[in-house]
């Protein structure tokens, strides 16, 4: 069993990380010819993780305060949350994929990973056929969709294996204790359940549950549900032609105007601008 296969097993079965394959949500992907116009209007953090496979040209990016160079033939992981300036030099053809982590435990683990990881050409070559399948966007049905998720799981597992883990994690047992509440929010978050309803899933008083959840996951229950709803909405905006009103409804909002305000507050751009900015 190679390191990637071992990584998948650890990702799904480690008691320290209550995660599963569905915790990684692919938002968008494709092929893009980047030139000197790429970047200036979109500098700054992006609310997702990125996989890049340049096939020609190069680019420079600022990640975590350091300048990084992307070269053709390698495979890259980039944390959009640490992104600063980025420019093609002078151009770059790249296959790209954006994804988010729905699970707060997995998201925290990925944020501990290095914001920039380069895999050698042999790894890129192993996934080349899957990456080239992004020519027309993210595959909407198997087997292409399954292969893309398999690649993403392998890369995520490798990232976690490369990331030093805390010697002790006092919140691990607490996260396990609160897992039923996370599952409840995953199932019912679109209707924005009350704190009391969520706390009842783990038989805790609402105020006490709120404090424990925030300590365990680094964000409040409301912030967790909001992030999931916004990620669902952003994925629909990027991958479908649904009207904004229908996107709002699927994300659990009755009022498209209120949804647009919440979306812009969360992502700093409105839904229409998000559609226009599609790309790596």
Describe this structure in words.
The protein is of the alpha+beta class and 280 residues long. The chain folds into two domains: 3-162, Jelly Rolls (Sandwich); 172-276, Orthogonal Bundle (Arc Repressor Mutant, subunit A). It has twelve helices and six strands. It has helices at 3-13, 104-112, 121-126, 128-132, 144-162, 172-188, 195-200, 206-217, 221-239, 244-250, 256-267, 271-276, and strands at 24-34, 49-63, 66-71, 75-79, 83-101, 116-119. Strands 1, 2, 3, 4, 5 and 6 form a six-stranded antiparallel sheet that branches. α6 crosses α8 and α9 (221-239) runs antiparallel to α10 (244-250). The longest helix is centred in the middle third of the chain and has 19 residues, at 144-162. The protein starts with a helix and ends with a helix.
Which strand-content bin applies to the residues? Answer: 15-25%
**Total beta strands:** 6
List the domain count as a whole number.
2
Percentage of residues assigned to helices: 40-55%
Termini Cα gap: 33 Å
Q: Name the overall outline.
A: globular
Biggest beta sheet attributes: 6 strands, antiparallel
Tally of contiguous helical segments: 12
Category by helix and strand content: alpha+beta
Q: What is the rounded Rg? A: 19 Å
Supply the CATH class of the largest domain: Mainly Beta
């Amino acid at each position: 069993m190679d390191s990637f296969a071992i990584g998948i097993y650890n990702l799904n079965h480690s008691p320290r990380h209550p995660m599963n394959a569905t915790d990684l949500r692919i938002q968008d992907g494709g092929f893009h010819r980047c030139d000197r116009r790429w970047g200036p209007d979109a500098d700054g953090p992006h609310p997702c993780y990125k996989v890049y496979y340049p096939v020609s040209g190069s680019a420079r990016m600022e990640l975590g305060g350091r300048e990084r160079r992307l070269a053709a033939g390698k495979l890259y992981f980039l944390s959009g949350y640490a992104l600063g300036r980025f420019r093609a030099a002078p151009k770059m053809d790249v296959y790209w994929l954006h994804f988010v982590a729905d699970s707060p435990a997995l998201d925290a683990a990925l944020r501990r990973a290095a914001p920039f990881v380069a895999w050698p050409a042999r790894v890129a070559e192993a996934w080349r056929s899957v990456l080239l399948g992004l020519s027309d966007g993210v595959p909407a049905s198997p087997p292409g969709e399954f292969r893309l998720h398999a690649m993403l799981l392998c890369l995520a597992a490798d990232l976690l294996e490369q990331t030093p883990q805390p010697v002790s994690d006092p919140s691990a047992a607490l996260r396990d204790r609160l897992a039923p509440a996370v599952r409840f929010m995953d199932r019912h978050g679109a209707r924005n359940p009350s704190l009391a309803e969520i706390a009842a899933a783990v038989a805790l008083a609402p105020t006490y549950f709120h404090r424990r959840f925030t300590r365990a996951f680094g964000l409040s229950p409301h912030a967790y549900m909001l992030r999931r709803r916004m990620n669902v909405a952003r994925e629909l905006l990027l991958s479908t032609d649904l009207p904004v009103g229908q996107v709002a409804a699927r994300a659990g909002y009755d009022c498209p105007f209120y949804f647009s305000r919440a979306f812009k507050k969360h992502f700093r751009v409105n839904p229409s601008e998000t559609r226009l900015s599609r790309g790596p």
